[in-house]
## 1
Amino acid sequence: MNSFNYQYPVRQHFGKGCAENALKEEMKKVGKQVLLAYGGGSIKRTGLYDKICQWLEESGKEVVDFGGIMPNPTYAKVQEGARIVRDEHIDFILAVGGGSVIDCCKIVSSQAMMDVDAWDDWYVGHNLPKEFVPMGAVVTASGTGAEQNNGAVITNEEKKLKQPLFGAFHSFAILDSDLTKTQPMKQVISGAFDTLSHCMETYMGKPQSTNVSDEVNEAVMRNVIKNIHAIIADPDDDFARGELMWDSAMAENGLLKLGKVTDFQCHMIEHAVGAYTDCNHGQGLAILHPTFYRHLLNAGTAKLARMAQEVWGVKSDVEGVTYRNADAAELRTIAEKGIAALEAFIKGIGLPTHWSEIDITDDAVLRAASDTCFITPGCCKQMSRNEIFELLKECK
Ligand code: NZQ
Ligand code: ZN
């Protein structure tokens, strides 16, 4: 196992119906002026906005509104938030939403404390921010695990890039599965698939040998798959909803990544397509993953075969053969069957497997995405930009 240091700063409040008590408890620890950050309006339609405002008022807070954070949050929106934080002397940022609201707030939290431009500071100066306005998250859409880490994915519209920036860790995350019940089922499923993708991208990182993080990861992946089926069968299955919420947290709280360099190449390709198309993150990943793994088949055979058997329950046709004792040809067959099982799962849960299903058909967009995609170091095979373009076209 690779060496690591691990420290985790995010307090977790998990449980059906926990939001009110958890928020009031946390508000005792923060200053008076609170920025309430939220998305495009679901929070108002569902009545959550009124409840949160009431809980904040009962906690003695002055609330400043920062709404309209869009899916795939833009850098311009980050700058708007940072201006409000400075102008209104905000003591604490409360993000109420999914990955987009939470990510936007992480960079608002750092940009508000910086004189320089946060994008250039990271991508030109390679400096990590050091000072932050404290923040916490009430999660209304799980899957990204954005509340668990300090990475944010921001779309820089001017530069046509959707890429990571690093901001604050939240001091707390409120994971109340009741708050996710108003989400459309398609979004619940694409969020849960995002969690599965995080697990797979971590599992397929380097080194390819299996450590304890990978074995825990296998259990989380099986749990996500089981509970996606459960929630499709019964959207009122609160147990499954809670499990998926904690799976999402587990995939991004760092535990599964210990002792590894993660891959996340599939994510970077999806983000690049997202920069040009604004496509839904989980759906884009669903389209890419099986084809991406076919491109990794030679370099990652053993790990893909292990995942096939341990996660997808694939069996060899040859009696007594497993990924542990298979010869090279059979190992490849097991790996291929695992990729087919992943693809069948994606279709079975109603997610897309081709760009055409979400109206992405323009080769120029796919070429631009491959030319600007961020190349990660963790992949067992470093793909060229031309191969990424071929992969993207195979998904049409
Ligand atoms: O904006 P509103 O009106 O609130 O509607 C949102 C949005 O349209 C809606 N929604 C959220 N909670 C709801 C709800 N609708 C009804 N009831 C609720 N309880 O859902 C829509 C999608 O929300 P969004 O936050 O965009 O979705 P998600 O949580 O999937 O976040 C996606 C973003 O997170 C980034 C993605 O790239 C994308 O920008 N990611 C962040 C990561 C991180 N920081 O670690 C990791 C991920 O891999 C991912 O890249
Ligand atoms: Zn993701």
## 2
Amino acid sequence: MSERKTALVTGGSRGIGRAICVRLAKDGMDIVFNYQRGKEAADETVKLCEAEGIRAYAVQADVSSSAECEKLVKEALEFGDGQIDVLVNNAGITKDALLMKMKDEDLDAVVDVNLKGSFYMMRAVSRLMLRKKQGRIINMSSVVGLHGNAGQVNYAATKAAVVGMTKSLAKELASRKITVNAVAPGMIKTQMTDAIPESAREKMLAEIPMRELGMPEDIAEVVSFLAGDGAGYITGQVISVDGGMAI
Ligand code: NAP
């Protein structure tokens, strides 16, 4: 069995997920991650991780499907010699609109990926971690889940749900030394925020005390800390990384 830890990261093909994969690779972990559509981007993440001297593997899987999450975990276990030490639930989507104009499909799609995807992954992986009596689970919430945002009722609901799931599972698993925490990014420069119209982006920037967007690496740094040996007594917490937005 490999001496190295194995981390499973959802949505690792780009943005924050890619930065997390690379950061955990720098920490010496083998990396398994999934992507949904971006095979080329996923291959690039694999290369960036392997450059850190570890093994990396990309799996195509849609986390909104319970069956595909089970398949992803099975493949990760085969890759990781039967172990998954760290799970990072990062995959997420937005379907923004004012509530009056929000379609049922916009609610369903966001709930399916952000809420159900994290649920399915935590259920599948915590079974294994319970057997081993060790593990770290890190979920991606958002400043929007804590404070709300006009035009994102669906997204905010799922990111608030991530906080509720994190705290509840932390209580379920604490006695087995498995920690469950969440990170709540503010406005981070990725394709997700590149899609925000210029006028809305200016308004959001004005609400950031540091007056600039964060970078994916800012989030990856905190994930690395939560996944590391120094964070073993921290569980059920939500750490904001947002340039002061949540103050
Ligand atoms: P992003 O650039 O849009 O990347 C999203 C990632 O999730 C991609 O790797 C994508 O894969 C994957 N993904 C999307 N739908 C999926 C599905 N159904 N199944 C599996 N994978 C799927 O997003 P990001 O900005 O890096 O955000 C990452 C996380 O941080 C999300 O949970 C987001 O809500 C949260 N967050 C972001 C910000 C921000 O400002 N960027 C702020 C707060 C919270 P493909 O490339 O293959 O499609």
## 3
Amino acid sequence: MKSITVLGSTGSIGVSTLDIISHHRDEFSVFALTCHNKIEKLLEQCQQFQPKHVVIVDEQAAQKFREQMAGHKINCEVHVGAQALVTVAEQCEVDYVMAAIVGAAGLLPSLAAAKAGKRVLLANKEALVITGELFMNAIKQSGAELLPIDSEHNALYQSLPFKPFGQSLSEMGVNRLILTASGGPFRTFTADQLVGVTPEQAVAHPNWKMGQKISVDSATMMNKGLEVIEAHWLFNAPIQQIDVMIHPQSVIHSMVEYTDGSVIAELGMPDMRTPIAYALAWPKRIPSGVKQLNLLEIGKLEFYPVDFKQFPCMKLCYEALAMGGTATVTLNAANEIAVEAFLQKRINFIQIAQIVETSLEKVTIQPANDLEIILAVDAETRLITQKAIAAL
Ligand code: NDP
Ligand code: MG
């Protein structure tokens, strides 16, 4: 029986994780569930899974939860505030941590789970974008198990030799990692057509049902760029060995090209329950509830190159990774602020990339091997980006 903390249980990945656990109750017990403020969902989840602890970051929401828990027959400890996220991630009773908080808010608890030697099921890609070096060092030093949840990285993990972390790709005979991208809802739009697109259009992803932030990131293809950075840290992959290909069907989730000409890929339906079930059960396999892939029904798989002019965020990600240091911290923080502003209709779609580019020019790059410096750069970038948006 493995005891699991689900960070961000009320989100898209959190809900899918609990769906799998609900079918494997004899193998997993829920230690803690966490949310920002969606307590209706959390109350429901607590009724079903009876966790020992919940963390609610927002104080008012926590108060409401306390008032309603008895009526819902829930008996658990309620913690308030972001620091408690770290506590439920590092507790010694916890075996597995699903890191599924969105954005930099997930960094400290994800890092805590890595330092505490847990099996870390990492969905929170931003943690690697911000603290790739520190995070991977923490995993190595603590002996934690790191299982990628992002479908592309999970596919690469499955297509690489056993336990790839730490070895160089060339030692494993790997030529290239090829990340596939659906191209999002605006794949066929011209740069001109992109100007007027709305948040509602941007979050309507053709293949995946996801949280708002990652949906906008998919529409700008910032998401794929963040995934390039994620792959760099996860698989010790030089930037030149990571490529992206548009594959609108999202059936091939990514591929590894080997020096002998072989290409190994992972295929399946676009449903996050597959990578989540893989990471929960690894090295075994368990049913995930996902429909089997039927290639005869799908018929054809297409592939296209990425156009950096149409999707400038992708280019910014490659550039920030090449700059090194805290450039990717700034990239991520500026993007989070810009996406929020776009969702609130304070900026238009193409301004997201422009704003991130400006912040990258303005904020000084520092070495990224010190958490305090990283957090200071993150905070500075958020301020500068907010000001730039207000001045528009
Ligand atoms: P959602 O927006 O659906 O869920 C986010 C979760 O984080 C919710 O539980 C939310 O709580 C919580 N949260 C939000 N802000 C804070 C905060 N400041 N402090 C604490 N908790 C917070 O996101 P997704 O599930 O889509 O994505 C989660 C992560 O997984 C992201 O990093 C994303 O990039 C990654 N990922 C997601 C995929 C997907 O298919 N969804 C695919 C691959 C990666 P509340 O509900 O109360 O707001
Ligand atoms: Mg992905």
